[in-house]
Inverse folding.
């Protein structure tokens, strides 16, 4: 027995030896074997780089990330493909499922590369972070960060609204009095500054920092030099502007309660929806599904999409007028501020209120940061809350007292900064933990070079999502449409071909003879023809711009242009003749 | 072998002789061979026979010659026929007419020649002939040749089989190609899938991570954690064992298997024994053994073993507690009983468990009583009070004699849980307040026990939820109204507490508690008066009675009262009084039903009546009074029947009277405070008439709760009371709408006031009433809730499927005044409404969801389930993951979007070759 064990041991040792040898070979590659052959072999063998210290790594293959992380990256649970027809298809779907799982695993593994962990201010016990002043924060942080806290005194054209570009690099300031300035705020460099020549109600950056829209009397589009490039007179008296980045749409609401969608990539009007809600008091964009939320004076927030003439959701939020609306970056939560002084947090998915609290004097402005902090401005008080997943607000996370009343709030993307526009200028406040510390450089890159921007622009245009796809449920597109073919044909404008088969009802007592059936069939055929002709004539007259008035038979002018007029000017045929059955037509 | 010459000569011969030789021809003559497969055994056999027959012929010729000679001689014997019969037997060149050459004698003679023709041979010959024929047929006839088409068919079948075999061997290869996610052409040149699976940088840039950062990243991404075997061979080796080892292991296993079977057999045998005594003895032995073990364990100084044992016991206890049994029969309980002599704690724990069991097993009276059928969703006991008697151990559950009727808050709807928690908080607040106050009060020791008996908050919450649950979906307006009422009453509550805190220290606890109780009751009444409009009232009470001996009686009577409550909807005051009086009764150990004691008291009867009539603002007060009286009479009779005579009024002690009077005095004292709060409330709602502004106690402008107390002294007559109550109710009604509006706008949810903001709110709001009023004014015109519900109702109505009636009166029948169209015709011409699809927003009163189809999006959706899928779910499942590099890692994206066929530019794609698929064997095969 001992001998056998020894033999086994020696065998084992042998294999280890060979293993070690191969590892060394794999590591050293072509060094051990020279010549052409050796080189070839090296190419085949050395696929991956093995660190020097781990030549005899007892662990093989990549480590599996924690299950919780993988679960976060999974897109729903995998199901069996047993119900799928076809041998090949089934096996291919199985492979697809496996690949999706691999994708989740890989994505989870790559989270290790996410360098920065988000954090918030932590104060000692017995202290409250809400009582901290901005100076306290600037004293603690590094110089570069402290420099981000600044105030701009612009007393002349206030109150100012502030808007950061998508990558957070540029800041657009617009005073109600008409002063517009684009600033690269990190370097405090002014890109352009001008007076719009009238009241400015809203501003918005477009797809890049090179363009921005200003809503005064009309909507004007400026480039980064401050040159007015377009003036869209169709959009007038706009009160709020929101830009839908993936759809290249600029949504605006005006004082006459029209919601207008402008495609800025091709310059066409996508939709102009009469909301019929009175002067809109607030507007927000749900970044997750590109739904626009508009608040009204009667405490109602309505959610709109460009392809639907009625509000998708009408939500009674407050008893007073809605003063401000904000939607979180993930699209899960919505915060609304009402005229009665309440701020309510809503779960957008279930459309149910999560929590609410009262702020004396009411809240005029709200904004969500990328990491879910909620900033509120009531008069000169600016407070930042940290709503929990349960909807609890808790004590204010930070608060700041401005010199004048706040007129806008905007968190800077990818920065721990809250930009506050107020009556006499602009304040940049430090809010640690507000911005997303990790960015996807292919998506939005705060450190974009010119070349990268150009490339991104082309790519973004290629990936532009048509406005048709905007819906409350962003996964609606992958669902099967259960409508009937008839309904679909009707919607798509393709008129379903009338089935040529004529089915007659059976008649009793000898009245169902062949000749009678033939006669009846003939009648139906003629009636159908008649309808077809009527339709085509109507369509033709519409096409020629004769309007609804001059439809077939009503005036000879339309008929003349259609070329269906006889010598005397009377329409050919019996088009004008009315049938006794016509009264059933409508 | 085949004698061709002979064959031909015979053929010729037979031809020559024409008539006779058809059968021999059959024997010898063979059809020309068509197929090569016809040179079978049959043909060979025939040939052999032919040979044989020719050999025999040579011998036979000689015999026949002699035979002929013999025949000649015989024929010459009689001498009659001189002429020799010459028979021609062969063919010659010159046949003579008379004589025949004998050359042909050598030739073969056929058997048939021997037979006489015609009937000369007789029967025997015929018979022979037949037999001969038969013989000839049986042995020598060849089967008929296979028809041509059959042959063709056979040939085709053979060809098909061969071809099938040749093709079939390719099937696995083809199927594999089909199953593959992608096909790489030319085959085997390029390991596409491997390349795809590799990260891009690996494919493009060789494999070296050069910089330290790159190396670190590589380690991060590809670092390993799972130990893997070195190789397959090594794994096998390492797992292998030597033969001795294996044998030993096998023997061991066998042994265990045998042992197991013995035990099984034994257990089976024992199990079959029916004797109870046997089992009893067994069990006793087992228990004794266990106990011994335990004793041993406890006595032994091995803490770890003891710990282990207790851990096991704990597990047993956890398991038992999961079943909610809490008996003393479990493993843990028994062990605990044993340990009890060593450890006094164990005893307490066991008792605690028993108490819990008792608690859990107690009948949930309240749930059944207050359950109105629609609120059975979630029943939660919010508060429970236990009041141990003076004697006996307080920890021993078996010594408890009190029957506790718990209050139950029926919470309906999961989303309302939050409210419940708030309510609990409120309650806590109340209690705390009381505790603080009780520190500095000295009056009446026995009454210090008195607690806030009726807490409005849980009741409110409960009622609100009940209403919510009951509310039909379309009845949105009513729901809102109720909400508003609820909110308004909460507001009142808050203010009441404020006044209490102002008077802190001045009033004794009893007064305070009374006041709060009153206040709460008032609120309750308010709410109920609102509710009364809709005839939806529930009263939920916390009742506590302590009767020492007459457990059953009191329980029953309580039930009875509660039943009456159900039927008549008696307001909470009844219960309140019951509970109020109980403490005094308890003290004196009177076995009296509290409510009944009160019942006898005239003044208090009026007291009872009034709130009830207040509640039923649209029901006749007198009727109600009668009902209440009846209820109490019944109650009385019940208690009397039980023989509990002590509860009669006649036997009431003087002391009891004094107590009750004191209570009444307290009530009176609290009136003033309540007035003040109510006044504030009314002032807030801007509903004060000219006569309602004074702080004087006057029935005209007081709250029902207040009125309640006043009436005890000032307006003892029933008629007067009811009239006054009506007046108050009218006032309330008048101010109702306005109040509602104002309060709801200001306070939606008082619970939302929390944290720092909340404090500020209270200060500022309360301090600056003018601002509040300003806001109230600003939105006074808006009925936001009402407008919204109107909008929603209109929307729902417009989108509901509608019936179309296309009947033309007078079509085919007479019509005119008084003539209704034929119902049958009407039915014919009525287009029925499509079935109602439930709206998505049916359970969300504050939401209108558009039911409109998104036609624009539908144009991009898939309309029919595509090929390999059978169900929509399967199809949607297959689409659930994104494919683009924006959402998933590029490697996975590449794998998911790889084309079905990979080709290499410039490479010739040859058809599959057998060599390639089957190797060398394939090459030889084809």
């Amino acid at each position: 027995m001992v001998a056998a064990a020894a033999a086994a041991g020696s065998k084992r040792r042998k294999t280890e030896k060979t293993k070690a040898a191969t590892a060394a070979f794999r590591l050293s590659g072509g060094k051990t074997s020279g010549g052409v052959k050796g080189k070839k072999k090296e190419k085949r063998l050395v696929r991956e780089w093995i660190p020097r210290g781990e030549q005899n790594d007892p662990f093989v293959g990549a480590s599996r990330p924690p299950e919780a992380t993988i679960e976060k990256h999974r897109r729903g649970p995998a199901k069996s493909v047993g119900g799928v027809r076809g041998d090949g298809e089934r096996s291919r779907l199985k492979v697809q499922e496996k690949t999706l799982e691999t994708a989740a695993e890989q994505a989870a593994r790559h989270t290790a590369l996410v360098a920065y962990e988000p954090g918030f201010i932590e104060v000692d016990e017995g202290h409250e972070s809400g009582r901290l002043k901005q100076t306290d924060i600037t004293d603690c942080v590094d110089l570069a960060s402290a420099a981000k806290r600044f105030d701009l005194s612009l007393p002349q054209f206030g109150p100012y609204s502030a808007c950061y570009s998508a990558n957070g690099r540029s800041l657009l300031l617009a005073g109600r009095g008409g002063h517009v300035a684009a600033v690269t705020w990190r370097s405090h460099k002014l890109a352009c500054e001008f007076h719009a020549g009238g009241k400015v109600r809203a501003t918005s950056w477009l797809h890049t920092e090179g363009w921005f829209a200003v809503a005064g009397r009309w909507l004007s589009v400026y480039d980064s030099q401050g040159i007015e490039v377009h003036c869209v007179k169709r959009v007038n008296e706009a009160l709020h502007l929101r830009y839908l980045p993936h759809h290249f749409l600029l949504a605006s609401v005006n004082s006459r309660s029209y919601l207008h969608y402008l495609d800025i990539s091709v310059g066409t009007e996508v939709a102009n929806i009469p909301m019929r809600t009175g002067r809109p008091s607030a507007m927000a964009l749900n970044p997750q599904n590109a739904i626009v939320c508009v608040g009204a004076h009667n405490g109602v927030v309505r959610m709109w999409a460009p392809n639907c003439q009625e509000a998708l959701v009408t939500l009674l939020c407050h008893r007073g007028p809605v003063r401000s609306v904000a939607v979180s970056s993930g699209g899960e939560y919505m915060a609304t501020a009402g005229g009665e002084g309440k701020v309510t947090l809503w779960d957008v998915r279930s459309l149910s209120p999560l929590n609410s609290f009262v702020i004396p004097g009411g809240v005029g402005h709200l904004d969500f940061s990328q990491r879910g902090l909620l900033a509120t401005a009531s008069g000169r008080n600016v407070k930042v809350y940290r709503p929990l997943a349960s909807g609890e607000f808790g004590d204010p996370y930070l608060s700041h007292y401005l010199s004048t009343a706040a007129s806008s709030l905007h968190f800077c993307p990818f920065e721990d900064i809250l930009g506050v526009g107020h009556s006499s200028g602009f304040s940049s406040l430090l809010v640690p933990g507000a911005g997303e510390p990790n960015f996807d450089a292919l998506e939005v890159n705060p450190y974009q070079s010119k070349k990268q921007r150009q490339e991104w622009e082309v790519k973004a245009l290629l990936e532009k999502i048509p406005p048709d796809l905007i819906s409350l449920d962003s996964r609606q597109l992958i669902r099967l449409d259960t409508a009937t073919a008839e309904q679909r044909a009707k919607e798509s404008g393709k008129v379903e071909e009338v089935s040529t088969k004529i089915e007659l009802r059976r008649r009793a007592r000898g009245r169902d003879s062949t000749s009678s059936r033939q006669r009846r069939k003939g009648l139906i055929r003629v009636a159908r023809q008649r309808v077809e002709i009527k339709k085509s004539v109507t369509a033709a007259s519409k096409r020629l711009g004769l309007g609804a008035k001059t439809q077939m038979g009503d005036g000879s002018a339309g008929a003349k242009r259609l070329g269906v007029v006889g010598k005397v000017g009377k329409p050919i045929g019996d088009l004008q003749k009315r049938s006794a059955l016509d009264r059933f037509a409508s | 072998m085949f004698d061709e010459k002979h064959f031909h000569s015979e053929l010729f011969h037979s031809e020559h002789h024409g008539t006779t030789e058809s059968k021999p021809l059959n024997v010898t003559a063979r059809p020309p061979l068509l197929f090569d497969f016809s040179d079978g055994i049959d043909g060979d056999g025939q040939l052999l026979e032919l040979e044989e027959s020719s050999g025999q012929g040579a011998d036979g010729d000689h015999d026949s010659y002699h035979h002929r000679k013999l025949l000649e001689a015989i024929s010459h014997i009689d001498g009659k026929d001189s002429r020799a019969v010459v028979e021609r037997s062969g063919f010659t060149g010159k046949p003579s007419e008379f004589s025949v050459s004998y050359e042909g004698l050598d030739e073969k003679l056929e058997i048939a020649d021997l037979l006489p023709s015609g009937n000369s041979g007789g029967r025997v010959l015929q018979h022979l002939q037949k037999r001969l024929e038969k013989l000839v047929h049986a042995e020598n006839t060849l089967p008929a040749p296979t028809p041509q088409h059959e042959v063709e068919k056979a040939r085709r079948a053979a060809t098909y089989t061969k071809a099938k075999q040749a093709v079939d061997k390719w099937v696995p290869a083809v199927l594999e190609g089909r199953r593959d996610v992608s096909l790489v052409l030319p085959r085997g040149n390029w390991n596409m899938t491997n390349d795809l699976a590799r990260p891009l940088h690996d494919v493009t840039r060789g494999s070296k991570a050069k910089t330290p950062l790159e190396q670190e990243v590589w380690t991060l991404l590809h670092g390993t954690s799972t130990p893997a075997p070195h190789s397959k061979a090594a794994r096998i080796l390492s797992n292998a064992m030597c033969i001795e080892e294996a044998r030993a292991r096998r023997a061991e296993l066998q042994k265990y298997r045998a042992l197991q079977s013995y035990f099984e057999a034994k257990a089976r045998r024992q199990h079959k024994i029916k004797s109870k005594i046997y089992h009893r003895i067994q069990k006793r032995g087992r228990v004794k053994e266990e106990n011994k073990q335990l004793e041993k364990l406890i006595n032994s100084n091995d803490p770890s073993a003891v710990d282990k044992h207790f851990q096991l016991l704990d597990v047993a206890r956890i398991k038992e507690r999961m079943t909610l049994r809490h008996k003393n029969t479990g493993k843990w309980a028994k062990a605990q009983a044993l340990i009890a002599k060593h450890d006094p704690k164990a005893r307490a724990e066991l008792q605690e468990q028993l108490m819990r069991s008792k608690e859990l097993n107690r009948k949930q009276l309240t749930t059944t009583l207050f359950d109105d059928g629609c609120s059975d969703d979630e029943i939660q006991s919010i508060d429970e009070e236990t009041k141990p008697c003076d004697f006996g151990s307080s920890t021993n559950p078996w010594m408890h004699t009190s029957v506790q009727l718990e209050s139950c808050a029926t919470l309906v709807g999961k989303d309302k849980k939050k409210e419940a928690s708030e309510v609990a908080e409120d309650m806590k607040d109340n209690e705390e307040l009381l505790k603080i106050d009780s520190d500095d009060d000295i009056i009446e020791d026995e009454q210090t026990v008195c607690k806030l008996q009726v807490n409005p908050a849980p009741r409110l919450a409960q009622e609100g939820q009940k209403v919510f649950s009951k509310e039909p979906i379309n009845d949105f307006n009513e729901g809102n109204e109720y909400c508003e009422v609820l909110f308004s009453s909460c507001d009142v509550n808050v203010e009441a507490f404020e006044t209490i805190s102002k008077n802190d220290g001045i009033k004794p606890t009893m007064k305070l508690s009374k006041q709060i109780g009153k206040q709460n009751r008032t609120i309750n009444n308010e709410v109920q008066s609102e509710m009364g409009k809709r005839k939806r009232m529930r009263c939920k009470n916390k009742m506590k009675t302590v009767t020492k001996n007459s457990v059953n009686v009191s329980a029953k009577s309580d039930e009875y009262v509660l039943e009456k409550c159900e039927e008549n909807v008696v307001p909470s005051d009844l219960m309140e009084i019951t509970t109020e009086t109980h403490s005094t009764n308890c003290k004196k150990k009177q076995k009296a039903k509290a409510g009944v004691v009160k019942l006898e008291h005239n003044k208090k009867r009026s007291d009872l009546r009034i709130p009830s009539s207040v509640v039923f603002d649209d029901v006749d007060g007198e009727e109600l009074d009668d009902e209440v009286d009846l209820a109490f009479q019944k109650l009385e009779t019940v208690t009397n029947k039980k023989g509990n005579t002590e509860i009669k009024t006649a036997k009431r002690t003087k002391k009891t009277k004094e107590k009750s009077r004191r209570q009444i005095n307290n009530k009176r004292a609290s009136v003033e405070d309540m007035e003040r709060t109510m006044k504030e409330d009314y002032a807030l709602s801007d509903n004060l008439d000219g006569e309602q502004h004074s702080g004087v106690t006057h029935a005209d402008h007081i709250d029902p709760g207040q009125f309640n107390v006043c009436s005890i002294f000032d307006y003892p007559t029933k008629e007067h009371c009811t009239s006054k109550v009506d007046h108050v109710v009218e006032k309330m009604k008048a101010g109702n709408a306005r109040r509602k509006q104002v309060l709801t706008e200001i306070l939606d949810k008082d619970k939302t006031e929390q944290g720092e903001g909340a404090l500020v709110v209270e200060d500022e709001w309360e301090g600056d009433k003018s601002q509040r009023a300003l806001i109230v004014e600003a939105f006074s015109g808006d009925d936001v809730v009402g407008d919204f519900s109107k909008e929603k109702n209109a929307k729902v109505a417009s989108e509901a499927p509608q019936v179309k009636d296309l009947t033309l009166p007078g079509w085919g029948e007479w019509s005119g005044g008084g003539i209704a169209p034929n119902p049958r015709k009407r039915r014919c011409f009525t287009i029925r409404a499509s079935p109602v699809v439930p709206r998505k927003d049916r359970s969300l009163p504050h939401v209108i969801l558009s039911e409109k189809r998104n036609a624009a999006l539908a144009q991009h959706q898939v309309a029919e389930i595509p090929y390999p899928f059978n169900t929509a779910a399967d199809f949607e499942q297959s689409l659930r993951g994104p494919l683009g590099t924006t959402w998933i890692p590029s490697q996975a994206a590449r794998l998911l979007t790889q084309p079905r066929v990979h080709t290499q530019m410039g490479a010739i794609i040859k058809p599959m070759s057998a060599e390639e698929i089957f190797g060398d064997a394939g090459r030889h095969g084809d």
User: Anything to note?
Assistant: Chain B touches chain A through 104 residues (CB under 8 Å).
